[in-house]
Specification:
Structural class: alpha+beta
Order of helices and strands: HHEHHEEEEHEH
CATH topology of the largest domain: Arc Repressor Mutant, subunit A
Helix content: 40-55%
Low-confidence stretches: none
CATH architecture of the largest domain: Orthogonal Bundle
Mean pLDDT: 86
Strand content: 15-25%
Shape: flat
CATH class of the largest domain: Mainly Alpha
Number of domains: 2
Oligomer: single chain
Strand order of the largest sheet: 1-3-2
Largest sheet: 3 strands, antiparallel
Length: about 140
Amino acid sequence: MTHHRMRWEERLWATGHRVTRQRSLILDAVCAGEGHTPLGEIYARVRRADRSIDRSTVYRALRLFVEVGLVVAADTGSGETSYEIKKPRPHHHLVCRGCGGEQEIGDDATAAMFDEVRRRHGFEIATDHLVLFGLCEACRCRAGP
């Protein structure tokens, strides 16, 4: 998904933030990752476009984008937070600790679990981006019984 379809400028203005060329370049860099992209890769893309933008500017912009709902952040097990453009529908990820493979799953796969948490604990889950770690089928087969 590209941020150009999100009316991102309007979202920033509506939340009292300015639309700047730097923020546009940073969103472009997130989009170029086409999925979870670590801060280091986003920063490298931004620097190729404009050498005057420093790492702290990229980090602050990403925090703002997460805050206003343009971008989601996740720990995908790499040791570095990854970012991606927020999709229109909630989704989640399965990350294999064996091979590092990642699979996207729809919100319907977790709906029953979220409903059960709400029913048992009276807790309304507000996440729309969950990362679950485990072993994929191929790695489980390689590991044996």
